[in-house]
């Protein structure tokens, strides 16, 4: 590790092979928690399809800003000197953007775009600092700055148009952000793979924490036997989502990232597996939380079509991301998770999730995910033990 002589500031592009996630990074993530909570609340308060789409777009935009900082802190220590001050400023802007989530498509559209623009500008400024002396990294940062500026400009323009065109501009802004890494290539970036994987694992934990918070929010009224049962089943769902990722998936993903050749191969895997594929995981967890938040106060009543689709569809989206991740890392299909996705689709297709009591819907999802875990644990017990407890990267 290096530092600037006489000041103790480490400002250069320093890979963090031996470092773990810092306390400031976790502190930064807490602001993202508020944004996630605001997105779930947007749908839970008024479960209509328009709000589902808005929440997905807002979460996508904010996710892209968060994952950008995970790339940044892989080369620049956020706790050194003036860097932490810029991180605090970015946190403040992200906090403002999170507060604007309920009105991001209405009266707070311009304020959201300005706050988001500041978050991205701080990110680029710190990355320019991190790329000093690294020509390839600097070129990649300049390209990223261009796509970021275009996306922010589109969001600002969206604040001045009608509702229909505003949605279209948001979709375009998100497409520009997501498409930038493909258009400009991945050769110049640098990451510390273990740190990068741990950073994304932490954000999955934070998203799962939101599902637990959703249980508490839903149970804020009188605690009845139905509420207790629904809360316990909701906890089973949250635990199952944790198991399905952290038991094997996260281990394989991290090992494959470490094993990939530094440079383009590793950067493209990091981009695909973490920046892209972890977004549907986090979004899926958020939508499950919407269903739990709606179900707890009225466990004996039907969830309603939108909330039920959010919860069961969110679980399917979460599993679909796992299937895609496995294909990207080891070119193998996870057939049992595909089968589970199909069953979830059938449940929605026959309106099973809409007509029964919410408690039945939650119980069915908890049973299905628990059954999937039990099948995998028994069917692949030897392979699972080898992956979890042996050193070789081969899976």
Notable characteristics:
395 residues; mainly alpha; I/LWEQ domain; 2 domains
Describe this structure in words.
- The protein has 395 residues and is mostly helical.
- It contains 15 helices and no strands.
- The N terminus is likely disordered.
- It has two domains: 169 residues, no CATH class; 187 residues, Up-down Bundle (I/LWEQ domain).
Question: What's the short story on this structure?
Answer:
By secondary structure, this protein is an all-alpha fold. The protein is 75% helix and 0% strand.
Order of helices and strands: HHHHHHHHHHHHHHH
What is the CATH topology classification name of the largest domain? I/LWEQ domain
Coarse structural class: mainly alpha
Query: Which regions contain 5 or more consecutive residues with pLDDT less than 50?
Result: 1-15
Shape: globular
Specify the biggest β-sheet.
none
Termini Cα gap = 32 Å
Q: Can you give the mean pLDDT?
A: 89
What is the count of helical runs?
15
Give me the CATH architecture of the largest domain, please: Up-down Bundle
Strand content: under 5%
Radius of gyration from CA coordinates: 21 Å
Helix content: over 70%
Quickly name the level 1 CATH class of the largest domain: Mainly Alpha
Total domain modules: 2
Topology summary:
Blueprint lengths: L22 H23 L3 H24 L9 H18 L9 H22 L4 H24 L4 H22 L8 H26 L6 H22 L2 H11 L4 H13 L1 H18 L9 H26 L4 H15 L8 H22 L1 H9 L6
Helix pairs in contact: 1-2, 1-3, 1-7, 1-11, 2-4, 2-6, 3-4, 4-5, 5-6, 7-8, 7-9, 7-11, 8-14, 9-10, 9-12, 11-12, 12-13, 13-14
């Amino acid at each position: 590790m290096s530092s600037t002589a006489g000041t103790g500031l480490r400002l250069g592009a320093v890979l963090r092979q031996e470092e773990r996630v810092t306390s400031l990074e976790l502190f930064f993530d807490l602001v993202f928690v508020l944004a996630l909570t605001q997105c779930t609340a947007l749908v839970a308060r008024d479960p209509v399809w328009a709000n589902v789409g808005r929440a997905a777009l807002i979460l996508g935009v904010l996710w892209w800003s968060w994952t950008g900082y995970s790339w940044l802190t892989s080369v620049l220590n956020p706790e050194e000197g003036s860097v932490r001050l810029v991180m605090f400023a970015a946190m403040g802007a992200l906090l403002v953007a999170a507060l604007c989530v309920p009105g991001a498509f209405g009266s707070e559209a311009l304020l959201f775009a300005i706050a988001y623009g500041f978050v991205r500008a701080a990110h680029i400024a710190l990355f320019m600092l991190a790329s000093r002396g690294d020509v390839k990294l600097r070129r990649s940062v300049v390209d990223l700055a261009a796509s970021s500026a275009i996306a922010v400009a589109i969001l600002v323009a969206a604040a001045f148009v009608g509702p229909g065109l505003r949605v279209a501009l948001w979709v375009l802004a998100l497409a520009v952000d997501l498409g930038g890494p493909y258009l400009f290539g991945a050769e110049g970036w640098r990451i510390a793979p273990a740190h990068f994987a741990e950073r994304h694992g932490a954000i999955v934990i934070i998203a799962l924490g939101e599902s637990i918070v959703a249980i508490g929010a839903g149970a804020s009224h009188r605690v009845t036997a139905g509420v207790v049962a629904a809360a316990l089943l909701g906890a089973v769902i949250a635990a199952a989502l944790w198991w399905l990722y952290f038991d094997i998936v996260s281990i394989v993903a991290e090992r494959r990232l470490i094993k990939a050749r530094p440079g383009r191969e590793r950067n493209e895997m990091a981009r695909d597996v973490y920046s892209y594929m972890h977004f549907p995981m986090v979004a899926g967890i958020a939508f499950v939380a919407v269903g739990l938040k709606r179900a707890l106060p009225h466990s004996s009543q039907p969830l309603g079509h939108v909330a039920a689709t959010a919860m069961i569809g969110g679980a399917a989206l979460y599993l679909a991301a796992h299937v895609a991740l496995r294909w990207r890392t080891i070119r193998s299909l996870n057939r049992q998770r595909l089968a589970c996705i199909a069953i979830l689709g059938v449940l929605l297709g026959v309106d099973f999730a809409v007509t029964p009591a919410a408690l039945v819907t939650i119980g069915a999802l908890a049973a299905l995910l628990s059954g999937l875990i039990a099948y995998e644990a028994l069917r692949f017990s030897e392979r699972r033990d080898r992956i979890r407890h042996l050193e070789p990267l081969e899976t």
